[in-house]
Amino acid sequence: MPKPAMKVLYSREFIAEQVERLGKEISRDYHGREILLAGVLKGSFLFFADLVRAISSPVVVDFVRLASYGSETRSSGIVEMRKDLEIPLQGRDVIIVEDIIDSGNTLEYLYHHLLQRKPRSLKICTLIDKRALREVPIEADYVGITMDEGFIIGYGLDHDERYRNLPDIHLLQEG
What CATH number does the domain located at 12-148 have? Predict the structure, then answer.
């Protein structure tokens, strides 16, 4: 498979600064309280690991795995639950940790699915808030980077399961 044309959009240093800022904001907001961080696999795994280390409040971690992308560069709109959280949510402060919010369909599905389990609070943290193709009115409480459009890869973000290992976030240049 030939390597696609791409250019660095966000450097690893810039990403690290945003993750550190998010960790401080979350630590401030939850000072002294235990937080359940619910990572959305697979894309959030690098961001999730770095964010956990940037939070000074007590943290418990769990993961959910959803699918909505196939091999195309646009969301299919259909959300499939492949792995649910194992830790009970009732009475806990929960933050969903997502790599990117694009159409919002996946996150809206997950948010309402978790809300039914009666957490004390439920918030959303995303590394990338991509607004151009938003289809549902869902907003993140903690946002690392806001962008309008473009398909990005690297730092956990993939295209057809490839390029997650790139340390910077690249704009995929289709053509």
Answer: 3.40.50.2020
Per-domain boundaries in the chain: 12-148
pTM: 0.91
Tell me how far apart the alpha carbons of residues 118 and 163 are, in angstroms, rounded to a whole number: 37
Which is the catalytic residue, given 102, 129, 141, 168?
Answer: 102
pLDDT class of 118 with cuts at 50, 70, 90? very high
Name the CA dihedral angle for 41, 123, 172, 17, rounded to a multiple of 10 degrees: -100
Main-chain dihedrals φ then ψ at residue 103, nearest 5 degrees: -65, -30
Complete DSSP assignment for 103-146: SSHHHHHHHHHHHTT--SEEEEEEEEEE-TT--S----SEEEEE
d(CA 169, CA 156): 9
Active-site residue, 102 included: yes
One-letter amino acid of 36: L
What residue type is 150 in one-letter code?
G
User: Is the pLDDT assigned to residue 106 strictly greater than 50?
Assistant: yes
Closest to 81 (Cα-Cα) out of 46, 50, 40: 40
